[in-house]
Write a structure and sequence with these properties.
The protein is mainly alpha-helical. It has 18 helices and no strands. Its main location: membrane.
């Protein structure tokens, strides 16, 4: 959804200006999205109790699983749209928009039906106990009923950003956060709905934002807009969307499995409250991760467009600037986690046992946090230029090849501490792999640039 001039400026304006123009709105949106999740946790922690925090943490794997299918479509389509705009193939970009809507509708409905039917067995498998499953079930029933709304909202927002309207994509996200923050205390406290109230507030906020997105895409004066003939699924487009979206899909699937292992391990060694501690740490760390993801979203259309236009020097430049900014963000997270962990986690609960468990876990988790920004940007970089295979390798190296073996082995020697230490160990090893792959790719770009200049 962009005028041609808006799209083509990705190949002409200074990279630093473009990154700021695209990344700042995305960062604001992603930070707001993270705060959106934190608000739920804070209201639930103070309004329902510490065991409700553990119940909420049990739902994280299922939320990751839902996000996996959402990113399969949303990320894949947004990347493909950026590349097609760079190639000035506006007709195909329009077809991608229609396929995004159809795919999200089909996947969203199927996911909701299957998970609702088997919800209790799924939650027990994820680490729920008799004490925590009532909270987890109450929250997820509402979230799953609104799953189609969530998929459609996230998918259209991704397309909006990649098509040249990062500010409007940011507004949609911030609108969702503000509405959710207003509705949370209303449904949790005033209406006495407890944890179910938090879920209702979440879905209602997304419905309102989705209505605004639909209105934007209904504008026929825009380059990309909803019209007849674009909703029929096209095999080539679906294969390309899913092919590119496999990297974040597998990353979220891996995240789902990892959280299950962490929840089960912490429950075994420290009990239900330790799962709540991980839930709090996860929310805090997620704030900084989401900022880096905002940087990645700002980089994605710039890298995708210039890669499609074969302007490799601009691709290299945006990558380097994004890595620098991401490292600053993750270093800030490291300082917060190491210097003021107790103060930070106390925002979620007044239970001293939960505070102590969370603070200890936070210190360990952010041990090597400064380098994780580089690893995240590198993985997203390969995804942004359509190199799905390399992006998948990088995504899985940290979460599957390294972290999962650590989660099985280290607790045998260190108990619950082994679970916490698995995370920073995987961070540093995955970053080394990312550095090697990026070095080889930059050498290739340099050679291609020489060939192009030689021809010219």
């Amino acid at each position: 959804m962009s005028q041609k001039g808006t799209a083509t400026e990705l190949g002409t304006l200074p990279i630093g200006k473009l990154l700021a123009q695209y990344a700042i709105p995305a960062i604001i949106a992603m930070t707001a999205s993270s705060l959106y999740n934190m608000v739920d946790s804070i209201f639930i922690g103070h309004g329902v109790g510490p065991m409700a925090i553990s119940g909420l943490a049990i739902t994280f794997p299922l939320m990751n699983l839902a996000a996996a299918f959402g990113s399969l479509v949303g990320v894949g389509a947004s990347t493909l749209i950026s590349v097609k705009l760079g190639q000035k193939d506006y007709h195909t970009a329009q077809q991608i928009l229609g396929n995004v809507i159809s795919l999200n509708l089909i996947i969203g409905v199927l996911f909701t039906i299957i998970t609702l039917v088997f919800l209790d067995p799924i939650l027990y498998f994820f680490g729920a106990s008799e004490a925590t499953i009532p909270y987890a079930r109450d929250y997820m029933e509402i979230i799953l009923i609104g799953n189609v709304i969530t998929h459609m909202y996230l998918g259209l927002n991704s397309v909006l950003r990649s098509a040249g309207h990062p500010q409007k994509a940011m507004i949609a996200t911030i609108l969702t956060v503000i509405i959710n923050t207003i509705l949370d205390p209303l449904f949790i406290y005033t209406f006495g709905m407890g944890i179910r109230g938090a879920a209702v507030a979440t879905i209602l906020a997304q419905i309102i934002s989705l209505c605004w997105l639909v209105k934007l895409f209904a504008n026929k004066e825009e380059l990309l807009h909803m019209k007849r003939g674009i909703y029929r699924l096209r095999k080539v487009l679906v294969e390309n969307i899913i092919g590119i979206g496999l990297a974040p899909f597998f990353m979220n699937i891996a995240a789902c499995f990892i959280v299950i292992l962490i929840n089960k391990g912490l429950k075994l060694y420290d009990g239900d409250l330790a799962i709540g501690a991980f839930g709090i740490v996860n929310r805090i760390v997620f704030l900084f991760v989401m900022i880096v993801m905002g940087l990645n979203q700002g980089m994605q259309p710039i890298a995708g467009y210039n890669f499609g236009a074969q302007q490799y020097h601009r691709v290299n430049h945006v990558m380097k600037l994004t890595v620098i900014a991401a490292t600053i963000v993750t270093t800030t997270g490291f300082l917060v986690g190491e210097l003021i962990p107790e103060l930070t986690v106390s925002a979620f609960t007044t239970d001293q046992t939960l505070i102590d468990l969370s603070a200890k876990g936070l210190r360990i988790t952010v041990m090597f946090f400064p380098i994780i920004g580089f690893q995240m940007v590198t993985s997203n970089f390969f995804q942004s230029i359509g190199m799905a295979r390399k992006a998948i390798i990088l995504s899985l190296s940290r979460q599957v090849l390294i972290l999962i073996p650590c989660l099985f082995i280290l607790p045998l020697f260190w108990g619950s501490l082994g679970i916490w230490y698995s995370m920073p160990i995987s961070d540093i090893m995955a970053s080394l792999i990312a550095g090697f792959m990026l070095y080889k790719q930059f050498k290739h770009f340099k050679q291609k640039a020489k060939e192009i200049n030689g021809v010219n």
